[in-house]
Write a structure and sequence with these properties.
single chain; alpha/beta; Nucleotidyltransferase, domain 5; 2 domains; six-stranded mixed beta sheet; five-stranded mixed beta sheet
Length: 331
């Protein structure tokens, strides 16, 4: 039996999972969640995980670890941990034939061609071109963006900082939001991520609370900023007018950014919307509030019309995608 090791490494938690390859399909055999800060070395954590399996468990032949940071030359220094990871050293220390480190958002590209219907949901179902690029963006705490370029060996993932491009207001309402946020945050420029992210939904609500007459005495005014995005979504679901306005504005900016990404990448193989908000706001992403701005690209709207658009809803998509990449490393 062939086994593969996959990991999703963050500053707070690290997820490790062992997969087996059975009749061409990946099957997760066991997984574990660790507190990252409890380990001084990542290799020690990996070896501990591998040692916890049954005595007859085959040692994995390859591993892919998704890491929260930029990977350069097979090395990455994690921002919030004293871990310097290097592919060759990890392979040697952990007894693995091949190890690859991939940015934790870009790694999702490797899982996209292998997703089941239970891991995704259609937003605009269309037949995709298997020879064309794919792309994914996902609003969570920030906004992740990655591209997938087709090669004879399969998709090649390309990490991106496209979310830090300039936020481009489409109307007077978005212009007012932009100018207020720049002044309030003391910024020379406002990136897309400042608006299109989970944090951005909270920023949109802060603007409305400060400038809309309905914001005076509003219950959300006293909400902890870290909890504001979830509180806005809950209030909108309950029919609160100001929260609904914030959600509508946020969805419009998100949809417009998704349509821009479709044009930038010509991802006729498919565009996926992921991140922590994808499953939580699926009905909203399937609504006109998101989809109409996505398609409203003037004379190039016909190009975007051809792009299949899906929501990536699997909370363990990072692990699954890392396992898909580890599979290709077997040679």
């Amino acid at each position: 039996m062939t086994t593969l090791l996959a990991g999703d490494i963050g500053g707070t938690k690290t997820l490790l999972a062992l997969y087996s390859l059975e009749q061409g399909e990946l099957r997760q055999r066991r997984s574990e969640r660790y507190s990252s800060a409890a380990w001084t070395e990542f290799s020690a954590l990996v070896n501990h995980f591998l040692a916890q399996g049954p005595a007859d468990e085959p040692h994995p032949g390859s591993a892919c670890f998704a890491v929260a940071g930029p990977v350069r030359g097979g090395r990455v220094q994690l921002t919030n941990l004293p871990w310097l990871l290097e592919e060759g050293a990890l392979a040697q220390t952990c007894g693995l034939a091949r190890v690859e480190l991939v940015n934790d958002f870009a790694v999702l590209i490797y899982g996209l061609p292998h997703l089941s219907d239970t891991q995704q949901a259609p937003l605009r179902p269309r037949p995709g071109d298997p020879q064309a690029p794919v792309a994914i963006l996902g609003a969570g705490t920030g906004l992740g963006v990655a591209f997938g370029i087709p090669t004879p060996q399969g998709l090649m993932a390309m990490a991106s900082e496209a979310s830090h491009a300039e936020f481009a207001p489409r109307n007077a309402e978005e212009w007012a939001l932009k100018t207020w946020l720049q002044a309030d945050l003391g910024l020379e420029r406002l990136s897309i991520e400042r608006v299109v992210s989970g944090t951005g939904l909270g920023e949109v609500m802060r603007w409305l609370l400060a400038t809309d007459p309905a914001g005076s005495g509003h219950p959300l005014a006293a909400t902890d900023p870290l909890e504001t995005p979830a509180a806005v979504a809950a209030a909108a679901a309950a029919g609160d007018g100001l929260a609904l306005r914030a959600q509508r504005l946020w969805l419009g900016a998100y949809g417009s950014a998704a349509g821009d990404l479709a044009l930038q990448s010509l991802c006729l193989g498919g565009l996926w919307v992921g991140g922590g908000t994808a499953a939580k706001q699926l009905p909203q992403l399937q609504s006109a509030a998101f989809l109409e701005p996505l398609l409203a690209k003037g004379r190039l709207s016909a190009v975007v019309e051809q792009v299949p658009v899906m929501a990536l809803t699997d909370p363990e998509a990072g692990l699954f995608s890392a396992a898909c990449r580890a599979r290709t490393l077997l040679g």
